Amino acid sequence: MQSILLFIKNGVTPLETVSDNPEYYINREFSIIAFNQRVLMLANDERVPLLERMRFLSICSSNLDEFFEIRVAGLKEKIALSSGKLTIDGLRPDEAFSQISQKTHINS
What are the residue boundaries of the Polyphosphate kinase N-terminal domain, all occurrences included (predicted)? Predict the structure, then answer.
């Protein structure tokens, strides 16, 4: 609380101090991918009862279906419109799309 009061006293709000710095933000798409990777790890854990593992697979399947239909499709639209505008985390849409592709494809 005191740090907030110090910001206000100096005429700077906490939001102004971090809003322009991309390293303070987590990419929403990467966060969704990481969550689903954790869910898949639980589904792969043999110590987890079988029906729970099936439930985790169902959750992951539903989440990834929505992710690609909504989030990735939105990125593809931005790329098609040649939107080079950086997202709040400092990535261009084509950079985010490329990283999503790398994170979601299995390397064989």
Answer: 25-105
- Our count of domains for the chain comes to 1
Nearest-angstrom CA–CA distance, 45 and 63: 19
Residues of the domain holding 72: 27-104
Whether 15 maps to a domain, the answer reads no
pTM: 0.75
**The domain spanning residue 36 has which CATH number?**
1.20.58.310
Q: Which pLDDT tens digits describe the chain residue by residue (108 residues)?
A: 556 565 566 665 555 555 677 777 888 999 999 999 999 999 999 999 999 999 999 999 999 999 999 999 999 999 999 867 888 888 899 999 999 999 998 764
